[in-house]
Amino acid sequence: MSDDNSLSRRDLLAAAAAGGLAASTSGDETTKSKPEDLYQPESYWANRMQAPDDGKKYGWLIDTRRCFGCHACEVSCKAENDVPLGHYIRQTMTKDVGEYPQVARMFLPMACQHCEDAPCIKACPCGALGKETGGTVAIDYNVCCGHGTCVDVCPYGALYMDPVAHQAVKCHNCYHRLEQDMEPACVPTCPSEALYFGDLNDEKSPIRMAMDNMEKQGVDTQQLRPEKQTSPRMWFAGEGVTAVEDRVPTEGQSYSPAGYNIYGWKENPTAGGTPNNPATDPQQEAGQ
After folding, report:
1. Which fold has domain 1-288?
2. How far is CA 281 from CA 165, 178, 187, in A?
3. Which pLDDT tens digit goes with each residue over 123-140?
4. Among 7, 103, 147, 149, which one is least packed by beta carbons within 10 Å?
């Protein structure tokens, strides 16, 4: 992040007030109904919404036909980024479909969509969120004040508030690995090769080759919740995104241990995400 985005304490508090402190609590009804009410003035975030002019355009392709729910991507992500218990940067959503004896378990690996029109950037009152290399949506931890408005407006539940640092956390495409010409930790860890990442502008990148092959084979790809109009940088192949969409957290929610509750795999459509508030989630409250 550039120094232009740094704020004095007085500026930070003023910006937070403009964002509406009364609606800052995750799960608040006002936040759920109209997250755009929490957006800052466009002049405040417009420059941070612009990706560096580096010629790169990072994106993701998730082949849900190949995912078998091993959760290796989650484990590698937690290990790589030191994610605390009860919290997740990425999570594989699960849902059982069909009726016995014709049943199936569907999987949907989820993480930040790195939206081109990212709501979290628009809502951040301290200017900590912005675009980095290849359009990666990242958090500047020298600036983040822990206001939590980014959690309130993310339509994919991709951020959580760290209980120790009291700052927002999300996927950053493992930019520390990209700097060493390595893929994000989850990609090489996936045993079924269901995750593709790379530069969409590079015809020889893994994601471009995978997407081109799918197009030749007539395989359709789709994005999650297009009605949100965020222009996400993640595409999905297979039926998983349709079947499991109702398990994906939404505004004011984060990935949660409740997603692993076996009693909710079929019956409870909200098992995939709970409000980012430990008091509303017994498992998070217990530190599980």
Report:
1. Alpha-Beta Plaits (3.30.70)
2. 20, 35, 30
3. 999 999 999 999 999 999
4. 103
Angle 154-155-157 from CA coordinates, rounded to 5°? 65
Q: Per-domain residue ranges for the chain?
A: 1-288
CB atoms within 10 A of CB 87: 19
Backbone angles phi, psi at 249, to 5 degrees: -55, 160
Q: How many CB atoms lie within 10 A of CB 91?
A: 28
Instruction: Report how far apart, in Å, the C-alpha atoms of 96 and of each of 71, 104, 106, 149, 240 are.
Output: 16, 6, 6, 33, 11
Tens digit of each residue's pLDDT (9 = 90 or more) over 218-259: 999 999 999 999 999 999 999 999 999 999 999 999 999 988
pLDDT digits (tens, 9 = 90+) for 30-82: 444 588 999 999 999 999 999 999 999 999 999 999 999 999 999 999 999 99
